Amino acid sequence: MEKKTAVAAGTMLPLMEAFYTIQGEGTFSGTPAYFIRLGGCDVGCVWCDVKASWEAAKWPVLPIEEIVEGALQYPGRLVVITGGEPLMYNLDPLTRLLKENGFTTNIETSGAHPFSGDFDWVCFSPKKFKTPHPSIYAVADELKVVVFHKSDFDFAEKHAVLVRENCRKLLQPEWSKSDLFINSIIDYVKSHPNWKVSLQTHKFMEIP
Ligand SMILES: C[S@@+](CC[C@H](N)C(=O)[O-])C[C@H]1O[C@@H](n2cnc3c(N)ncnc32)[C@H](O)[C@@H]1O
Ligand SMILES: Nc1nc2[nH]cc(C(=O)O)c2c(=O)[nH]1
Ligand code: SF4
Ligand SMILES: [Mg+2]
């Protein structure tokens, strides 16, 4: 099959990097996980901490069997698919293969593209820069809003009414503005106890 056709089918995917680390953010923070970072993103967040991922063409296109083989080299059985924006691709074949190999599958997504894949946990981090696709709201397990500006609290509430009742609600300071916003995040969570704080703990630990 031609590469382009295989990428469209989701049987080959552009891989920026893959690494075994500790999930630093959100509900699974502290859990060992194999990260699969797919290349390509069209959302364009001004504060994105992985801008190098944006151009899909920069990254090698690999068969999903090879990607899963990489994950099998480590003892942990939690995989986090991230990017870039992973939902730019059809994730059905990759997640099916991961599950056949005994992995738990989590995703980190902006929700800017139609949902695909078989996931045990969906972390939805909506962005002002590109409106989420409506398919994300019924599947999000965690709503993780990055706080970069004071208007982001209202932005967070706007999305909180659209996700499922039991969806976890997290506020995460944008890394470079952490010192500026951490106190208002703490105050907000204390007065709106349906929210929790999420920190990028891997950055404090200085691990990938
Ligand atoms: C790099 S993104 C990749 C996945 C997907 N494109 C997304 O945005 O959800 C992974 C996570 O990091 C968060 N993130 C990216 N840059 C950040 C920053 N500078 N500070 C805090 N969180 C950040 C995103 O909101 C997202 O939850
Ligand atoms: N350790 C670690 N945890 C993470 N949680 C979400 C990440 C991401 O970039 O998607 C990330 C990451 O890049 N590293
Ligand atoms: S959607 Fe994710 S990968 Fe894309 S620019 Fe925003 S934070 Fe970066
Ligand atoms: Mg990251």
Automatic annotation (TrEMBL):
Substrate binds at I22, Q23, G24, R37, T82, P208. It catalyses: 6-carboxy-5,6,7,8-tetrahydropterin + H(+) = 7-carboxy-7-carbaguanine + NH4(+). Residues 28-208 form the Radical SAM core domain. Pathway: Purine metabolism; 7-cyano-7-deazaguanine biosynthesis. One of its GO terms (molecular function) is carbon-nitrogen lyase activity. Keywords: 4Fe-4S, Iron, Iron-sulfur, Lyase, Magnesium, Metal-binding, Queuosine biosynthesis, S-adenosyl-L-methionine. Binds 1 S-adenosyl-L-methionine per subunit. Binds 1 [4Fe-4S] cluster. The cluster is coordinated with 3 cysteines and an exchangeable S-adenosyl-L-methionine. Its cofactor is S-adenosyl-L-methionine; Mg(2+); [4Fe-4S] cluster. Its EC number is 4.3.99.3. [4Fe-4S] cluster binds at C41, C45, C48. S-adenosyl-L-methionine binds at W47, C48, D49, G84, S125, P126, K127. GO terms for biological process: tRNA queuosine(34) biosynthetic process. Belongs to the radical SAM superfamily. 7-carboxy-7-deazaguanine synthase family. Homodimer. Catalyzes the complex heterocyclic radical-mediated conversion of 6-carboxy-5,6,7,8-tetrahydropterin (CPH4) to 7-carboxy-7-deazaguanine (CDG), a step common to the biosynthetic pathways of all 7-deazapurine-containing compounds. This is 7-carboxy-7-deazaguanine synthase. It comes from Rhodonellum psychrophilum GCM71 = DSM 17998.
